[in-house]
Amino acid sequence: MILVNENFGKLQASYLFSEIAKRVRAYQEANPQAAVIRLGIGDVTLPLAPACLEAMHRAVDELGHEATFRGYGPEQGYDFLREAIAKNDYQARGCDIQASEIFVSDGSKCDCANIQELFANEGMRIGIPDPVYPVYVDTNVMAGRTGAAVEGRYQGLVYLEGSAANGFVPAPPAGEPLDLIYLCFPNNPTGAVATREQLQAWVDYARANKALILFDAAYEAFIRDPAIPHSIYEIPGARDCAIEFRSFSKKAGFTGVRCAFTVVPQGLVAYAKDGTAVPLHQMWNRRHTTKFNGVSYPVQRAAEAVYSQDGVCETTQQVDYYLGNAKLIRAGIQALGLDCVGGDNSPYVWVNVKGDSWAFFDRLLHEAQVVTTPGAGFGKCGEGYIRISAFNDRAKVEEAMARIAKAIR
Amino acid sequence: MILVNENFGKLQASYLFSEIAKRVRAYQEANPQAAVIRLGIGDVTLPLAPACLEAMHRAVDELGHEATFRGYGPEQGYDFLREAIAKNDYQARGCDIQASEIFVSDGSKCDCANIQELFANEGMRIGIPDPVYPVYVDTNVMAGRTGAAVEGRYQGLVYLEGSAANGFVPAPPAGEPLDLIYLCFPNNPTGAVATREQLQAWVDYARANKALILFDAAYEAFIRDPAIPHSIYEIPGARDCAIEFRSFSKKAGFTGVRCAFTVVPQGLVAYAKDGTAVPLHQMWNRRHTTKFNGVSYPVQRAAEAVYSQDGVCETTQQVDYYLGNAKLIRAGIQALGLDCVGGDNSPYVWVNVKGDSWAFFDRLLHEAQVVTTPGAGFGKCGEGYIRISAFNDRAKVEEAMARIAKAIR
Fold first, then answer.
1. What is the rounded CA–CA span in Å between residue B365 and residue B385?
2. Which pLDDT score, from 0 to 100, does residue A18 have?
3. What stretches in chain B show pLDDT beneath 50?
4. Which residues of chain A have pLDDT under 50?
5. Ranges in chain B annotated CATH 3.40.640.10
6. Interchain CB distance below 8 Å, B114 and A291
7. For B4, which of A61, A134, A271 is closest by C-beta distance?
8. Are B283 and A4 within 8 A, CB to CB?
9. Between residues 165 and 184 of chain A, which touch chain B (CB distance below 8 Å)?
10. Which residues is B37 bridged to in the sheet?
11. Under an 8 A CB cutoff, do A107 and B292 touch?
């Protein structure tokens, strides 16, 4: 008899964004005339940068000629892209990261989800922020690293609580040490950023406890404060204790194009139960080459073009545009007398709605025809908040904030 | 302390194609003047079909305009592609498969590798053909479903042996029933195809034993014999016991473009330990939406174009071209007095080399400058064979066969 992985049965409700999509669909079917504005899921809206479009067209043309056709590429990504990433995203910021340490993939969601396959299913304390991007939690549930959900939390996980009190940047906990730690800065959903000192505390903690940090930096392109690190590898000691995830989705509008990467430093280790050190770079390489076949060639050329002179200029303008939206959202929310964080170095504004977050979501959908994301979908500590995304057209953001002001006042 | 998944330590040697690449690289470095011909890894060489190129260019243009820009698509794939697949690959052949049962992905390697996450890690008898595409075995090893490797075989797996005697189409075994069964036809590596009766026997067996068949049909486009089924769903009862994997890689030269799909019928179930039936469609949907973010939009448009009138014509010509190569390879091998199977309804010819397969691989590399794939890399039953791939330029295939003839005679 074919047996299922019963851990899937522990998963709570449906995936957050599917649930939102369902409610929006239902509202639109009931109100076909309503002009709904989407500030929910963090999806870009600006057209792809001309430098990326040109690079994709050129690559597609190459596939049309025998002399320049390319079949399977290296699973880890083409050298031209790995080198551009290492040079521009790391070496230019003083991080000692080499091209061979970059693994190109089709998305940070996949990478964050897949990385847990490298680790033991038992005997580890896993620290996951709350509120948090649901993929970190759900993939550990599917792998059987948790018990059942009790009052919205899975038994066996350690929740690193974010709150207004700590600025949504949890510090390393006292007590029994963590072994695997998920961090995400600029944070999704709160938009909070971590200072150099806060990240140094986590790196020191991880090294002292032989723990591993999984650092999700998908939103690093939105950092404008020069004092805030863009990469965990800007922190001394991080090469010994951290894996980093990056994406072109938000940096260059690639949510429909699909390209991301993961950095696994040479020399980074985890341990067998008997204490033997096992290099993670080689393990991830084995996982990547066995279960993945590389990113579409024209997509890799488009990603390379992000680092060209035109590409840098065009994609920076896109990010600036969304940051301009975020500023408007912050101002609009603050004018309503509501507290918020984020939106400075992040496309997300995290709003204290002083009440039930799904109810507030429904209220904004029904009364202002604006889609947001209810904080409760990101964890227990997200209750009482909503996330507003700056990814949209300027005029629509202005319209949305006007409608929200009218509905809420 | 961060603990590794120690199951990775059970994996034997490196991934087959990485090992081949290493040996070829070493030979080329030592013999920089040698014109090596690659008939090893099954990678296409013909330029992408014009219909697909045009569709990709159009889609890239769409991404350049605000009105036609697309961000995140549905994780399961766009309806335009799912519907084209359901209609052309299934309904046109009389298979009752709906668009909603198609999950578009970036590769069959990923799908075959990821599907095992849906099943229990313990308490199942897993039947895997030998010889076989290494991914089925390796991903079950990584998940901890096997014991250690002993003399080239993992303890805990049931090997379904292929041989000249059964035409490399193993029949359902007697004795304790299997619970999870991997089948691949047209077969990689042997090129063997299964008849309707042989597939019916497997479907009947699976239904009688509440077992599940994972049917890899990545090479179905090469079937020219009208009596041979292209899909497991051509067999009555298969909807109740089978998941099917398909790919555009070999059908339309997409190895560098990346698109594939998996069919999980509604109503197909697996079981909890207590016997409760659990629908697999919903589980795979949850897995797919949690760990994957959809295929690149221009790639999905290119895949859709495979089903256009021009696309069908152009991609059929490509497959015919490779089948022409396969015919030459078969004839050349038979002229040397060696036995072989495959090559009629498949791009692979499986040659009995009457000796050690890595030694024969090295001999062809060193004496004929031709890269093949040693059968031993596909399992114990592959020892004594090599796989020759028909994916190359006609002139190169002719040259390779001439060199092989000279080296072997």
1. 15
2. 79
3. none
4. none
5. 57-305
6. yes
7. A271
8. yes
9. 179-180
10. B370
11. yes
Residues of A in contact with B45 (CB under 8 A): 66, 69, 71
Measured between beta carbons, the chain A residues lying within 8 angstroms of B48 are: 60, 63-64, 69
Query: Measuring CA to CA, how many Å separate A235 from each of A83, A227, A246, B41?
Result: 21, 12, 17, 42
Chain B contact set for A273 (CB, 8 A):
3, 6
ipTM field: 0.96
CATH topology of domain A12-47+310-408: Aspartate Aminotransferase, domain 1 (3.90.1150)
A290 neighbourhood in chain B, CB within 8 Å: 15, 113, 134-135, 138-139, 142
Nearest chain A CA: its distance from B199 CA (Å): 19
User: Are residues A274 and A248 in contact, defined by beta-carbon separation less than 8 angstroms?
Assistant: no
Terminal-residue alpha carbon distance, chain B:
60
Contact across the interface for B289 and A50, Cβ inside 8 Å: no
Angle subtended at Cα A173 by Cα A171 and Cα A174, rounded to the nearest 5 degrees: 135
Tell me the sheet residues that pair with A37: A370
Report the C-alpha gap between A1 and A169 in whole angstroms: 47
A407 in B contact zone (CB under 8 Å): no
User: Does residue A61 belong to the interface with chain B, where contact is any CB pair within 8 Å?
Assistant: yes
Q: How many other C-beta atoms can be found within 10 angstroms of the C-beta atom of residue A151? A: 5
Name every chain A residue with its beta carbon within 8 A of the beta carbon of B255.
Answer: 71-72, 293
CATH code for the part of the protein at B6-47+310-408: 3.90.1150.10
pLDDT of residue A14: 61
Burial of B102 from C-beta contacts in 10 A (0-12 / 13-18 / 19+):
buried
Q: Does A121 touch chain B (CB under 8 A)?
A: yes
The pLDDT tens digits of the residues spanning A24-47 come to 999 999 999 999 999 988 899 999
pLDDT at B16: 78
Residues of chain B with CATH 3.90.1150.10: 6-47+310-408
Q: State the DSSP string of A318-336.
A: HHHHHHHHHHHHHHHHHHT
Architecture of domain B57-305: 3-Layer(aba) Sandwich (3.40)
d(CA B232, CA B242): 7
Per-residue confidence (pLDDT) for residue B15, from 0 to 100: 67
pLDDT tens digits along A192-249: 999 999 999 999 999 999 999 999 999 999 999 999 999 999 999 999 999 999 999 9
Alpha-carbon distance of A354 to A366, in angstroms, equals 19
Are the Cβ atoms of B15 and A289 closer than 8 angstroms?
yes
Residues of chain B contacting A283 with CB distance shorter than 8 Å: 4-5, 8
Q: SS3 of A94, please?
A: coil
Round to whole Å and give the CA distance between A401 and A116.
Answer: 40
In A308-401, the DSSP E strands lie at 340-342, 348-352, 370-371, 373-374, 385-389
Q: From CA B272, how far away is CA A6, in angstroms rounded?
A: 7
Q: Which residues on A lie below 8 Å from B293 (Cβ)?
A: 106-107, 109-110, 255, 258
Query: B66 and chain A: CB distance < 8 Å anywhere?
Result: yes
